[in-house]
Amino acid sequence: MFYCWMAFVSHHTQFTSAFGGLSLFRYSRSRTRTEANLQAWDAADTLLLAHLAKQSTLGRVLVLNDSSGALVCALAQSGRAEAITSAGDSWVAQRAAEENLARNGLTGVNFCSSIDLPDGPVDTLLIKLPKALRLLADQLCRYRALLHQNTQVIFAGMVKHMSAGHFTTIESLLGPTTTSLAEKKARLIFAPVALPASPLPAPVQYQYQGLPLIALANVFSGESLDIGARCLLKHFPEQLPGPRVADLGCGNGILGLWAAKKLPDARVDFYDESMMAVASAEQNAAAWGLADRCRAICGDGMALAEDETYDVILCNPPFHQQQVVGDFIARQMFHDARRCLRAGGELWVVANRHMNYHQSLKRLFGDCTTRSDDTKFVVLTSVKA
Ligand SMILES: C[S@@+](CC[C@H](N)C(=O)[O-])C[C@H]1O[C@@H](n2cnc3c(N)ncnc32)[C@H](O)[C@@H]1O
């Protein structure tokens, strides 16, 4: 049985591209079977690398949205790039890439957050197509200043994730596109640097109870407040068991901001793996005049938090990490929350009722109370014994 499992895992971690073999894993703190099961690359990576192998030099390369580092590892292995920079909005993706580079004894890749601008110029821009069109538009405008008229720009993605909106966005910001043939359900899109630079799109702005909120391009819920978040806010308690609050998976920070607004002695820490999410939460805290009581931390769940720190943790958990759908991140978050609550501290969770988190929370905390239960969302609380 053990032997079979090892064979299964190694089959899913040995990546062969046009530049050679690599051992690649997705980032996982727990390395459960579910996560080990997920490949750290897809057919779009393979297709893009096969295309690049036809070129002897790539110049200075910028790679965007490389989900676990398959592209930067293969490029570092190829020796064809003068410099390689990887940028994206996911802390988890960046950590996976760093670990995979180290695992394969590779160096020479610089990392840049989704908000900062790396050094230019860029001769080859490689973009794994993000799901969010707002992020795509942001990236095309943000990095445009680094491109020159001969920069080759190549997008890679699975055909099922490509929408008309992706093509419209690229064509309105760069110029007319052409595509490769599809291979293993993946396709490349090529675009020239033909159009003049456009200004960075403004963040989404809306109000909650008269208070302004912004959300940078890759932040969950987009144009308005998430209905799950709205549901938790509706049932928000008048009293909390103490002032130390964490907003786990904070997005633009609405849950933690509301706690800080309602309870003048609350001190709130915001956690998210999206760099744009923590930046949005920070900007919103400043706009609400709460910056001195709020702190934002970018990382995987509450991995960076100390044990038994919080009186209350608020969580509207994600149901996917990049393109991978599942409840594995929520489960990891509940474990983090239990570790980081002090005895008597409370975890408040809002989720789609079909996720059935009641059972997982009851198993983990030995306690779970349903605070509200409408047709779509449920608000649950668990108290740490
Ligand atoms: C459903 S959204 C909730 C956002 C916000 N709290 C709200 O209620 O509108 C879940 C959030 O979890 C974040 N997230 C996903 N995976 C994460 C991880 N491994 N660690 C921390 N945050 C994560 C996502 O970036 C997203 O902002």
TrEMBL record:
Residues 13-192 form the RlmG N-terminal domain. Residues 213-380 form the Methyltransferase small domain. Pfam families: MTS, RLMG_N. The keyword Phosphoprotein does not apply. GO terms for molecular function: nucleic acid binding; rRNA (guanine-N2-)-methyltransferase activity. The keyword Cytoplasm applies. GO terms for cellular component: cytoplasm. Keywords: Cytoplasm, Methyltransferase, rRNA processing, S-adenosyl-L-methionine, Transferase. This is Ribosomal RNA large subunit methyltransferase G.
